[in-house]
Amino acid sequence: MINIKPFITTLLILFCNTVFAQSASVVRMEVPAPLESAAFHLEPLGQKGVLVFYESNEISDAGLRKWYFGLFDTQLKQVWLKFIPLHDGIEYVQSVKNGMMTHFLFRSAKSKKSSDDFYEIVSYNTHKEAFSNISGTI
């Protein structure tokens, strides 16, 4: 005689796995950026979410390149999008966290033919949701 108990148990396990697998939903995140945008950079901010930033093709009235920074919450819903004007011809190098502050280092691109090495440090305060920056040459 066929033992039906293992067969029913297997069916229940497969059914439960299918039901629970379907309960998770996929999140699609869209960041408004021109198609020419080469790269996005991500900076996780823990419970505050994530900062997504990229260089745009836009130049401000002061002749500075616009870098867009967007804050997304932990559900990947956009909270805000701000631009930070930085000198043209710089590239993102790295970031460092220090308490509530995250510092982003930018420096002149290697292809730029200049004797000076230009840098900008953009600091983001996660508590105040505010940016500041300093710049100089090495």
In brief:
The protein has 138 residues and is mainly beta. Helices cover 14% and strands 46% of the residues.
Characterization of the model:
There is one protein chain. The chain has 138 residues and is mostly beta strands. 14% of the residues lie in helices and 46% in strands. The chain has one helix and eight strands, in the order αββββββββ. The protein has one helix at 4-23; strands spanning 41-44, 50-59, 65-72, 78-86, 90-98, 101-108, 118-125, 130-137. A hairpin with a 5-residue loop joins strand 1 (41-44) and strand 2. It is elongated. The model has no long low-confidence stretch (mean pLDDT 82).
Mean pLDDT: 82
Q: Which structural class matches the secondary elements?
A: mainly beta
CA distance, first residue to last residue: 85 Å
- What is the count of β-strands? 8
Largest sheet: 4 strands, antiparallel
Total helical segments? 1
- Point out poorly predicted stretches: none
Radius of gyration: 23 Å
Oligomeric state of the chains in view: single chain
Helix proportion range? 10-25%
